[in-house]
Each structure stands twice: as C-alpha cells, then as structure tokens.
Amino acid sequence: MISLENVSKEYAAGIPAVKNVNLQIDDGEFVFIVGNSGSGKSTLIKLLLKELEPTEGTVMVNDIELNKLKHKEIPKFRRDIGVVFQDFRLLKDRSIYENVAFAQRVIEKSPKRIKKRVPEMLKLVGLAEKYRSFPKELSGGEQQRVAVARALINEPRLLLADEPTGNLDSTNSWEIMRLLNAVNKKGTTVLVVTHNREIVKKMQKRVITMKKGVIVKDVPEGGVLGEN
Amino acid sequence: MRISTLVYLVRQGLKNIVRNKMFSLASVATMAACIFLFGCFFSVVVNFRYIVEKAEEGVAVTVFFDEGLTEARITQIGKLLSDRKEASEISYVSAEEAWDSYQKDYFGEDSRLAEGFRDDNPLANSDHYEVYLSDVSVQDSLVKYIQGIEGVRKVNYSSAVANTLSDINILIGYISVAVIVILLAVAVFLISNTVTIGISVRKEEIAIMKLIGATDYFVRSPFVIEGAIIGLVGSALPLIAVYYLYRSVVSFVLERFTILSLDFVSSKFIFSYLVPISLVIGLGVGLLGSFSTIRKHLNV
C-alpha cells in the first residue's frame, strides 16, 4: 500500500515541486499519474523510492514509513520495488542476459537461482532467444521489455514506471502496457507516470492528474476521464 | 558473503582497472617506484646498521697504568672495569704481549728487524686493559669514569669510524623517509584519481544498483578492490627487481672489492622483512586512496 499524507517537497525555498499531496493506493491497484512537465510526477516517484526526502508530510510504501527508514535499511526497502525508466537505463556493455541477471547479482542471489530466473523472465517478456544480444542490437520496444524483465525479476510488490512508453512507437507502447497489465493481474501494484492520453483512456484504470505539484483529479478505475 | 558475490566484486574491481588502463598503469608505476626506492633504501640502511654493529664490536678503550703500579692495584682496576655495565668484555695485555703483537703487525715474518730490541722491550710500561664496549654511544661516560680511577695514566679511545657510520646511517634514513613519504602521497593521489574516474565511468550503473537495492558495501567494494589490487601489484613488482638488483650488487662488490673484505646481510634476511612491509604499505596506500575517494564521490 502507498500512502501520502500532506506531502510537500520544495527544491528551493518557497518553490514547491509537490504541494500538500494526499494519496492512497491499495495493494494490487493499477494507477496512472498524468500531468504536464513540471507537474510534480517525477518528484512523486522519487519520494516513493526515497531518493528524495519530503519537506513536509509522511510517505508510506509497502507498509514502511519512509521518514523513519534508516540509511542502511534503504537497500532492503528498494528490493521490493521494481523501476522502469523512459530511457531504459540498460548497461550497454553487457548482454541482455547480464542486464537482467544484474538485478539479482546486486542483491546477492545465488548463481543457481540466477540461472533459473533470468531465462524465465526473458521468456515472460518474449526475448528468450535474444539473451546474447547487446542493448544496441535491440529495438526501443525490446530494450524496454528487457528493462521490465530486470524490474520484475526480484518479484517486487510495487512496480514504478516513469514514462515507460515515452520513447516508443504506438505498437511497442501497447506491448509494454499489455506486459504491465499482465504483471498487475498477478498481484503486483503498478504505478505508471505517462503523457500518453490515448493509452490512459483505453486502459480504463485509475487516473490521478497532477498540475503544478497538486493532485487536481483522481478518477477511479472505469471512471470518465474528461478532457483535461 | 557468498563466494559467488566475492568473485563478482573482484571481477568488477579488475574490470575497473582494465577500463582505466592508463590511469591504473600510472598508479601502479608510481607505487612501484615508491616501493623500489623503499627497497633500495631499506637494503642500504640494514647493511649500514650491520656494518656499524660490526664496527662497534671492534671499538675498544685502552687503559694504561701509572709507572710502577703494583699488580694488586692493576687487578683491582680490572675488577672495577669488569663491573661496569658499559663494558661487554675486558682483557689484560701485558707489556710482553703488546710487544709481540706489535712485532707481528709491523715486522711480520722478518724477525731480524726486531733483533735490536731483544733484551729491551720498547713497550715496557705499556701493559694495559682493553675494554670492549656494549654500545659505542656509552663510550664517553665510561672513559670519564676510567680517567677518574687512581693509577690510570692514560685512556686511548676512538669512535670516529663508528660515529661517522652512525651519522651516515641516520642521514640515509632521513632522506629515504622524506622521498618515500612524497612518493606515497603521489601514489595515494594517483590511485584516488583512478578510482574517481572509475566512479564517473560507472555513474549510470551505480545509480541503477542503488535503485535496485544494492547495499553500500556492494556498491563500494569494486572500488576498494581496485585500489587494493593496484597497491599490491605496485608493491609486488618492484620487490622482484630489488631482489635481483641486491643479489647482483652484492656479488659484484664481493668479486671486485675482495680487498675490503666486506660482509653483507643475506638477501633472505632482508627480504623476510622487506616483502611483508612493502606489501602492507602497498595495500595500505591502495586502500587509503580508494577509501578517501569513495567517501568523497560515492554517496550511496
């Protein structure tokens, strides 16, 4: 469960990036966060990952109150969260297999487990046969699928996707959304920040709209989105 | 920690070194120069100490008596001298023995040269004690004491050789410490630069690692290992060079300068100290270089 109570974040004194946000997202939900540039979407993601500290308010993720989390407890907390970025952030000097295995290696999983899990994840995202390829040999859509596999291999309770279709064409965008939907169906909470209104409309999920650091609209799953 | 994790971290450390070949090479070379000089100075200092100790063993104070002093008083003086803790050994040399020794030293086999003195010992009244010192630095206090003993005519002593050797030894020690400290500082600086570049090259990877949930030690370890490997390799390579150089120099000097009848400390003895000291210095400098950088640039 994600819960934000009266959360504000100011980068410079008097200029809030997020202002007095109150939000609750239950386990297993699929939620879109939409808004223009500078609306505070990315700041919100960083607050949820404890990359940033709120200036005010309380942030809870996976039943952990982040304000009280000690520095040495952060790695363990983040292992329960998968992250996908617009620019994929794959390691260019490593194969697809190594990119996915990387997520398991850094949390010190056994080689036996890595050998079992990586092919499973690559199969899930439809790239089992390209395990030897390097990122530059793949299309944007394929690279993003590798990033999704890397985000999911540690079986996180929450998946955060920051503009996952921002660099993709329509076909690839839909492929990624189908993948995220399938992950959500298996019980993972999914939070997607996006500009893509077409996808948001068609997916019929809960949509939170932000403007200038404030939540201006929260439309539940299947609700009418409206024009803005 | 799992063995597979350790292997992974060491491999990442090695990868860092290979990625920054030129900087790694410069760091290893500086470290190597430092340890090479350290090895050379160390060998020289140890040998000088050895020579000084040898020279000190031969330094003796000679105590002559007043003319006509009774045998009882001479024995008494001998007792007083042997009771002193500065004296490691004393021996009595009679006038006859002194003359015999003089003849041997200066006339050699040609006994005809001493014929004229057959019945007249020119060294009469030169019976004396030879007092060997436990440590050449206490010579002055012992001489002062002996000069105050009743019945003592004259005290001969000289520590010029030993003191000069000691002074040279101390000078070499100071110079070597100064040069090594400067080189160590350069080595720390270069290793720190190498690690900084490694961190900037891997910035993206480090960011992903942190987001995925890598612990601080997992993120930092490859850079610590990188510094340690540079330090160890940089200290091990010159040891091989110093080893062969030492053996060559010793055998060259022994062959060419047999007349000096020099004696050197064995390479086995020197390297039984030099190897562990150098490796510890190398490792220490490597760790210092990487730790200081990680603290500054790797905010995990």
Brief write-up:
The complex is a heterodimer of chains A (228) and B (300). With 228 residues, chain A is an alpha/beta fold.
Characterize the structure shown.
The complex is a heterodimer of chains A (228) and B (300). With 228 residues, chain A is of the alpha/beta class. Helices cover 32% and strands 28% of the residues of chain A. A six-stranded mixed β-sheet of chain A has the order 6-7-8-3-9-10, sandwiched between helices. In chain A, helix 3 (96-105) runs parallel beside helix 5. The longest helix of chain A is centred in the last third of the chain and has 16 residues, at 170-185. The model of chain A has no long low-confidence stretch (mean pLDDT 90). Chain B has two domains: 3-50 and 172-297, no CATH class; 60-157, Alpha-Beta Plaits. Chain B has a four-stranded antiparallel β-sheet. In chain B, helix 1 packs across helix 8 and helix 6 (160-201) runs parallel beside helix 9. The chains are: A alpha/beta (228), B alpha+beta (300). The A-B interface holds A 49, 51, 72, 75-79, 83, 89, 91, 102-103, 105-108, 110-111, 150, 154 and B 1-2, 4-5, 8, 204-205, 207-216, 218.
Helical fraction of chain A equals: 25-40%
Largest sheet of chain B: 4 strands, antiparallel
Quote the distance from N terminus to C terminus of chain B: 19 Å
Helix residue percentage of chain B: over 70%
List descriptors.
A: 228 residues, alpha/beta, six-stranded mixed sheet, 7 helices, B: 300 residues, alpha+beta, Alpha-Beta Plaits, 2 domains, four-stranded antiparallel sheet, 9 helices, 8% strand
Topology:
The complex is a heterodimer of chains A (228) and B (300).
Chain A: E1 2-12, E2 15-25, E3 30-34, H1 41-48, E4 56-61, E5 64-65, H2 74-78, E6 81-85, H3 96-105, H4 111-124, H5 140-152, E7 158-162, H6 170-185, E8 189-194, H7 197-203, E9 206-211, E10 214-219
Parallel strand pairs in A: 3-8, 3-9, 6-7, 7-8
Antiparallel strand pairs in A: 1-2, 1-4, 4-5, 9-10
Chain B: H1 3-19, H2 21-58, E1 60-65, H3 71-83, E2 87-93, H4 95-106, E3 128-133, H5 139-147, E4 152-156, H6 160-201, H7 203-212, H8 216-256, H9 267-297
Antiparallel strand pairs in B: 1-3, 1-4, 2-3
